[in-house]
Design brief:
heterodimer; A: 711 residues; alpha/beta; Rossmann fold; seven-stranded mixed sheet; two-stranded antiparallel sheet; 30 helices; 10 strands; 60% helix; B: 97 residues; mainly beta; SH3 type barrels; six-stranded antiparallel sheet; 2 helices; 12% helix; iron (chain B); Fe-transptr_FeoA-like (chain B); Transcriptional_repressor_C (chain B)
């Protein structure tokens, strides 16, 4: 993980490199809110090569607060938001990165460290400050949440604190924006060009300590906090009673379920409109681009450079988005593919652009509104202090299967999409717990499965909404039970050991900031889009090629475009693969056409519906008309006259899609977060086996009962 | 707010016994020794559960709720059993009953 060269390049690139300023603090002191308040829209995710931790950074100007704005001096800084940590002895991969960044082992020594402490809890949050101060780095202490402290009657005397700490101290409130200008000025004073040499070495805070250094730090922090704060009359709202209820065994659980249910209700009700807007926009873009492309074959000499160059441009854009580095191998590959694309017949190029690229990305980006809403509410809940209570309540249940209580937030997110769920698993401290959580997350019902469930529900219970609702609930429950049991099995086998016992700060309840939730949501959305624009693009193009090539021989005639599309899919690699695996899936009640759907749905599960629509001869548009598709599917019969979509096959297909790892984008994220393909492959193998066996049992049982003949 | 204030440090320990945090009832205690090793030891100490420090058990159960330097901390019983404590005489003056 030693990558100092990348930093050297980074800083050597522009003539006056902005000073690096690290934002450091305990979890729950509002550090990220402060970062968002300072950086606003300038924030971007900085990927340090070799580490999976995303650090957010922003380049912004800091200035002296001066009466005369004309002679106001400014200086650019690069502000880096480090993961929250309690001490420089790390207990999680994120904390290790933060500790190494502070000590200069990663990316060199910073020009300034801003330590964020909590004004409502000075004594405990100053402990980290004491460790940082001992490093003798230029330090500024920001006392955040000053408004919350004052409403509780706590007076912080920043001048006395500054005297005791030997560094500038600024009282701020990230929520109201108070003190931000002073903080910028303090940073400016530290990093301004004519900066004097480092301040004189500070006396060690814990000099002479022979026992536990932590105890000495806490005693020191108590002393400093006691001398610089005054407890007056409290005006804050007392929330002790609320906390007692929310952390109690049964009421807490009911409250948690209610909160989770409300979040999902909001996600599904609010995301509906933006989702259909996105679908319409992509459809419109596809049509427009289709119109723009020439219909008549152009002069090849003219066409080739245009097509190859646009392909190169898209690849370069994807590389930039994903921050992939150009190597001789990847470069050659991109050029070769671009040449191939340039040589493509016009019709193929059109299909690649509209169905492969635009269609493929649309299939995933359509979930963006759900992900945005999810992260907006999760950030609000986290800032309010509730999420820690949720983890506390869930700990009792989750521990039994070897999952930590903190795994509940990723599990909540995974019900929208496994990708943000896996990314949210970063909050879990220990590697073992994080790994188990990531491995079981894709079993939870994500929204890409819903179109498949809708189709099966229409096939089975088209006339009974109550039964269909029951089927949906059953599918969700099956996913949840499978995830928990798998965690239990992993605990006994591959990832042995218990979940590490909980020690978790339950932060004070406070009013969350909408602004912070908004910026966090934008950040998450960008990470997701970056994924869609690079990896998912690649997967879509590969699957498009599999379903398109080899082309049908030109000689044959087809009665209509529809039969031609059907025949060409059958003739393609995907169709051949479907035929090839037919014997494997036959015991599950699937014919080769369903197998083609399963193969193509690796891009995204909901692709199954549109693929079935093509293989059964309805065309792309057929998928939009659920009634039409369902009627057509119902009428399908096998060679012996029995229905293809019998009750047994429908249930088998449902169970298969609940449990199977039908999502390559998730696999890529698993690889990235676990650092190895090994775990992504394990995830794929165990989920596919589980899905296969479960679907086999379901089909054979129902078939034995005679359900394979009726629909 | 009551939980914010620390008890006076001058209170004398009663008798030395090898009680652990997992075995006591609500109230203030002084940590004597943290017998956890490795990462668990760091996780306990850096949140202020370290020898010589006072902590208050607020809610029993598994996990339990502690008040450490004015912060509520959820702690599993398993980790609590690694923390040897002694009762603080006369409870904490500034703490509520």
């Amino acid at each position: 993980m030693n990558q100092p060269s990348a930093f050297a390049e980074r800083t050597a690139a522009s003539p006056p490199p902005p000073s690096t300023v690290l934002l450091v603090g305990n979890p729950n002191v509002g550090k990220t809110s402060l970062f968002n308040a300072l950086a606003g829209l300038r924030a971007k995710t900085a990927n340090y090569p070799g580490i999976t931790v995303d650090l957010r950074e922003a380049v912004l100007p800091v200035a002296a607060v001066d009466d005369d704005s004309r002679c106001q001096a400014t200086s650019d800084i690069c502000l880096i938001d480090l993961p929250g940590l309690y001490s420089l002895d790390p207990a999680s991969p994120e904390e290790e990165i933060a500790a190494r960044r502070i000590s200069g082992q990663l990316g060199g020594i910073a020009d300034c460290v801003v330590v964020v402490v909590d004004a409502t809890n000075m004594a405990r949050t100053l402990v980290l400050a004491s460790e940082i101060l001992e490093l003798n780095l230029p330090t500024v202490v920001a006392v955040n949440l000053i408004d919350a402290a004052e409403s509780r009657g706590i007076q912080v005397q920043t001048d006395r604190l500054s005297e005791r700490l030997g560094c500038p101290v600024v009282a701020v409130s990230a929520r109201t924006g108070r003190g931000l200008a002073e903080l910028r000025e303090s940073i400016y004073q530290v990093v301004k060009p004519t900066k004097p040499v480092l301040p004189i070495a500070r006396a060690s805070c814990v000099a002479g300590c022979t026992g536990c250094p932590y105890a000495a730090r806490f005693d020191w922090a108590d002393g400093v906090a006691g001398a610089s704060t005054q407890q007056g009359e409290s005006h804050g709202v007392q929330l002790e009673w609320l906390d007692r209820w929310l952390t109690s065994r049964w009421v807490g659980l009911v409250a948690l379920l209610a909160v989770m249910f409300s979040v999902f209700f909001l996600i599904f009700s609010l995301a509906d409109i933006p989702m259909s807007v996105i679908e319409t926009c992509f459809g419109w873009a596809g049509d427009r681009i289709g119109d723009l492309l020439p219909h008549q074959p152009l002069n090849r000499l003219l066409w080739f450079p245009i097509a190859a160059a646009s392909s190169l441009a898209v690849a370069a854009g994807a590389f930039k988005l994903n921050e992939t580095r150009w190597t001789p191998v990847s470069g050659t590959l991109v050029v070769l593919v671009s040449v191939l694309i340039g040589l493509m017949p016009l019709e193929d190029f059109r299909s690649l652009v509209i169905e492969g690229v635009i269609g493929g990305i649309a299939g995933v980006v359509v979930f963006l509104p759900q992900i945005c809403i999810l992260f907006f509410f999760i950030t609000l809940l986290e800032d309010s202090g509730y999420m820690a209570r949720g983890a506390f309540v869930m700990e009792r249940i989750m521990r039994r299967v070897g999952l930590p209580g903190k795994a509940f937030v990723p599990m909540l997110s995974a019900h929208a999409c496994a990708i943000p769920g896996i990314m949210a698993a970063r909050t879990i401290e220990t590697w073992r717990d994080r790994l188990v959580t990531i491995l079981v997350l894709p079993l939870l019902t994500c929204s890409a499965r819903l179109p498949v469930y809708v189709m099966v529900a229409a096939l089975l219970f088209g006339d009974s909404p109550a039964k269909a609702a029951l089927m949906f609930a059953g599918a969700y429950l099956l996913g949840l039970i499978a995830a928990l049991s798998t965690a239990f099995v992993l605990k006994k086998t591959v990832v042995r050991g218990e979940a590490s016992p909980m020690i978790l700060e339950l932060p004070r309840y406070r009013l969350p900031s909408l602004r912070n939730a908004w910026f966090t949501m934008l950040d998450r959305a960008f990470v997701f889009l970056r994924q869609a624009g690079s990896t998912i693009l690649l997967i879509s193009v590969v699957l498009w090629a599999l379903a398109t090539y080899p082309k049908l021989p030109e000689s044959q005639d087809y009665s209509s475009d529809l039969t031609r599309a059907q025949a060409s899919l059958e003739y393609s690699y995907a169709g051949r693969a479907g035929r090839l695996v037919e014997p494997v899936f036959a015991p599950l009640g699937f014919d080769w056409k369903i197998d083609v759907g399963i193969i193509s749905s690796f891009a995204a599960r909901e692709v199954l519906v549109s693929t079935l629509s093509i293989v059964y001869g309805l065309g792309e548009e057929g998928a939009d008309d659920a009634r039409g598709l369902v009627e057509t599917l119902r009428d399908q019969t096998a060679a012996d006259g029995s229905p293809v979509f019998s009750t047994a096959t429908c249930f088998s297909l449902l169970v298969f899609f609940v449990l199977a790892m039908q999502c390559l984008p998730t696999q890529v994220v698993t690889k990235r977060e676990t650092g190895s393909w090994k775990w992504a492959i394990l995830q794929f193998v165990y989920m596919t086996m589980l899905a296969y066996v479960a679907a086999l049992v379901v089909y054979q049982t129902l078939a034995a009962a005679g359900y394979d003949q009726i629909t | 707010m009551a939980t914010l204030s620390m008890p006076a440090v001058s209170t004398a320990p009663v008798a030395t016994s090898s009680l652990t945090l997992a075995e006591i009832g609500p109230g203030w205690v002084r940590c004597q020794e943290v017998t956890a090793v490795g990462i668990d030891s760091i996780r306990l100490r850096r949140l202020g559960i370290c020898p010589g420090r006072l902590v208050e058990l607020v809610g029993r159960g598994d996990p339990m709720i502690l008040n450490v330097s004015g912060t509520r901390i959820g702690l599993s019983r398993q980790l609590a059993s690694f923390v040897q404590v002694e009762p603080v005489a006369g409870s904490a003056p500034a703490s509520p009953r």
